[in-house]
Amino acid sequence: MAFTLPTLPYAHEALEPHIDTATMQIHHGKHHQAYVDNLNKAIAGTAHEKMSIEELVASAGTISPAVRNNGGGHWNHTFFFESLTPTTGGEPSGELASAINETFGSLDELKEKMNTAGTTRFGSGWAWLIVKDGKLEVSSTPNQDNPLMDVAETKGTPLLGIDVWEHAYYLKYQNKRPDYLKAIWNVVNWDKVGERYNAAK
Ligand code: MN
How far, in Å, CA of 127 to CA of 125, rounded? Predict the structure, then answer.
């Protein structure tokens, strides 16, 4: 069955002023849609048509670059848009909050670590908060790779992924990737990240 573009869980303008409306329209409606369309084209008539997106991503090292890039793009963007919320001012709670403090010292230190991972990722890619062997860890991946891929340098279960492709921020922040990374923390859905942590740990 062909993959389809998931509906955005909030309006395009809902993340203003941190993430602008035009960026959301293009990011979801054009970029994510293109990953879905190109993934469907790449798997048409092959055995990959019967595989789930998770199965495709997990076998990234043995599938074609088109399936790896567009399958990763589809998985990453679905995960990314679900990780954001218009409700600002949220914070980690419960066991996730304790684990963040234990591992990084504080939420601010985690943010700094993620932002460094994002700014030092040359070219396009992603910064990640993952669970690896029961512990929190920050990592990054190039292109549309992710920590679920067999080819990932640091494998683990993603809790939060931040898109650092220029298409994620250039209209509003131009070349200032650090400003975008600073702003995006205002719209992180910590309830969702906490749910993922509870399922993964
Ligand atoms: Mn993107």
Answer: 7
